[in-house]
Design a protein that fits this description.
The complex is a heterodimer. By secondary structure, chain A is an all-alpha fold. Chain A has one domain. Chain A is built from four helices and no strands. Chain A is flat, with a radius of gyration of 15 Å. Chain B has one domain. In chain B, helix 1 runs antiparallel to helix 2 and helix 2 packs parallel to helix 6. The radius of gyration of chain B is 16 Å and the shape is globular. Chain B is built from eight helices and no strands. Chain B is mainly α. Classes of the chains: A mainly alpha, B mainly alpha. The interface between A and B is medium-sized, with 29 and 34 residues.
Chain lengths: 62, 147
Amino acid sequence: MRVVVKEWLKENGAYVALWLLMGLVTLGLVVRDLGIYTLAAILPFLPLFIVVLIRLTQELRK
Amino acid sequence: MIIAHITIPLILCRLFPLNLLALLLGSGAPNFDAIPTLLRKKTPKNAMAELHAGSILHTPFLYLVIVPIVWYFLGLSIAISFSLGGIIHIFMECLDEKGRMLLYPFSKKFYRIYVFPYDFWTYLTDKKTLILESTLFIVASVLVFIR
């Protein structure tokens, strides 16, 4: 499905907030268990995350 | 699945003697085939046709084949944890509209039990998705704090 990200975010703000909350708490749980090794779990996926952030920023600037 | 790829390893580590780091890396590994999709200028009209979830990274075969290799270099616990992470990722995603190539390389057929949407934007606002993901999130949170 193609969406206009800016409009989609406005319409579904509650869902976005919920996902962000769950994501951040889950990250906290991982940090609690793995400590500094969390970086080793995140590092391989950093390129994916950076690409997503760049694409999202591009979409939001349109 | 989005957060479930992290909460399921957290739950499994509380119930079985597995390596959390290897489980998380294995659980995330299949998603490397999302890179071509993410790099596209425009989202394809037909999400089912994209490479994500349609490559060898999303097949249980790969994670079975690499067990002896990882075992040799890093030990049995890490090998089992990594492969289990990948295989659980794939089986959980069989619940979406696209399904996964469970019998690859013997068959390229996508097997599924259609419960959740595949499309990312629809997935984020689907009630069934939220129920499953938030339930796993709550179970993982409770287990992390009590065990």
